[in-house]
Here is the input.
Amino acid sequence: MDPLIRERLGEAIDDNLLLHFTWIQARTEGMTVLRAADIVHTVSGLPSDSYNAVCRARFSAESVDRRIAETRAWFAERSLPFAWWVFLGDRPSDLGQRLAERGMGLAERQVAMAADLSQPPRAQRDLSVRRVATPEDLATFAALSAAGHSPTDPTTAEFYRRAAPGLLSAGSPCWFLLGCLGEEPVSALQLTMGPGPTAGCYNLVTHPDHRGRGIARALLTQGLLAARAAGADVAVLQATEGSHDWYRDLRFDTVGLIEEYL
Here is the structure.
């Protein structure tokens, strides 16, 4: 990949991730987003590192150690678990190593990927897909999301319950899709639309009882087609290191690595 294209895609991935992490917390009662010049905190108030996060660090070599200590102390004073996400453009370049040296463990390394939506993949099976429009459907999305991850996060249902008014509002950039067999929702996908012509793909999951049948591919493909119809020209996502070959078959290319520390 051309270095300039890689840089631009990296910026699009970072910007979309930031929107994904912050949009709803900034609009939900009891949640907050704290933006400093060199760091962003997203705080749900729930006792879960899934919904309290630090991201988009832009530290200088002189300030990085102090800012790491201050950030960890801020969450410790409030007894809130949190995840520190190291984006592609975060600084300094050895931020992850510095976090590890100060006691934070690498929880996950994800492959940041992007796809040109001028030629989206084709679905290999039919699937009924509906966009979430009611609190009941959003609760179904939350249940599928929780069931698809191990260990299950017990705060997931409460997070989506609190966030429902904003997530279901007309101006929300967060789209939630349910893939159904007949009337039964068995798969879920979130699209975060923006900034600009970028669509971020998150929380793609199929219920364990229905895996291995091409359902996730069909749902993602329909999601990409919907994003393109809405004006997106690039799709971005973060894949586990074991699944990125699956996304490569769907025409996603590797851009870089994103890390999560706990």
The longest strand covers residues 106-116. Residues 123 and 217 are 7 Å apart (CA to CA). The two ends are 32 Å apart (CA to CA). The chain has two domains: 3-111, 116-255.
